[in-house]
Amino acid sequence: MHQMTEKHFILATAGHVDHGKSALVKALTGTDPDRLPEEKARQITIDLGFAELNVAGPDEQRFHIGIVDVPGHEDFVRNMIAGVGSIDLALLVVAADDGWMPQTEEHVQILTYLGVDRAVIALTKSDLGGSKTVARQIRDRLRNSPLAKAQIIATSVRNGEGIEALKSTLGSEFAAVHPPRDYGKPRLFIDRVFSLRGIGTVVTGTLIGGQLRREQKIVVQPGNLHTRIRSIQSHGRDSEVAEPGMRTAISCPSRKITATSSRKSRRAAAEKRFVSVSSSWNNADCGENQAL
């Protein structure tokens, strides 16, 4: 029997504040992406959150999905941009009780500017009514957008409506997406930098273009900082190799990579968009992923 290879993709949420993006991620994965005390206290997403999901596609295909949950509040749009820079599919969330809102529009514009042309739309809070009206509103708003034909799935985290249908739809969508290619030129677009006692400096991001291996020599740009990979993790699991399309965390012995210990410094790091590449590249090969 032919064994299908698991394919790796990245999904990011998008949508207005308080439309239920994080709650939907938790319903899909069992993981609460809001991890900061301030997020718990204010009940809104401030920084990027992360989760993983395994879904089945047609013909026994299996997809491992790294999910990036982004903030919807207008004050944290820079963090949102940092989270959607290297994704394969967007999960646009619109609440049935609110409908299309200002940050919905802004997030769709950002996705368009960044070239994201595939999405699934989750119509959340469908238990509150108004789903059909809001679905028509969404179609009208997206009619001239690259996302005009995106499927709309009515969901409710309160009663579980649409959660399995959403998983199935995601599987079908990812089956039509070309998996990230290995060009032998790995690039890790970094969205977080922090330090752990006994581990060293850790950088995380979405890997594209090639594999990264433990003990591999790398260059962090901008700054032309040469270092090596001490260890690799993906969603908390140790690995010898990171594949294109994986959410990847690498630890490095260098202390010159600034740790982002506060939200202000995390925003600054996101704006700089450091890129980690194989040391076999020269500086001309490595460009910054510019923020808007």
Describe this structure in words.
23% of the residues lie in helices and 31% in strands. The strands form three sheets. Strands 11-10-16-7-8-15-12-13 form an eight-stranded antiparallel sheet, covered by helices on one side. Strands 2-3-1-4-5-6 form a six-stranded mixed sheet, with helices on both faces. It starts with 6 loop residues before the first strand and ends in a 14-residue tail after the last strand. The radius of gyration is 19 Å and the shape is elongated. The protein folds into two domains: 169 residues, P-loop containing nucleotide triphosphate hydrolases (Rossmann fold, 3-Layer(aba) Sandwich), CATH 3.40.50.300; 99 residues, Translation factors (Elongation Factor Tu (Ef-tu), domain 3). The C terminus is likely disordered. It is built from seven helices and 16 strands. Strand 10 and strand 11 form a beta hairpin. The protein is of the alpha+beta class and 292 residues long.
**What is the number of beta strands?**
16
Number of domains: 2
Q: Order of SSEs, N→C? A: EHHEEHEHEHEHEEEEEEEEEHE
List the uncertain runs.
Answer: 259-263, 265-275, 281-292
How much beta, percentage-wise?
A: 25-35%
Report on the biggest sheet.
8 strands, antiparallel
Mean pLDDT: 80
CATH class of the largest domain: Alpha Beta
CATH fold topology of the largest domain: Rossmann fold
The coarse silhouette is elongated
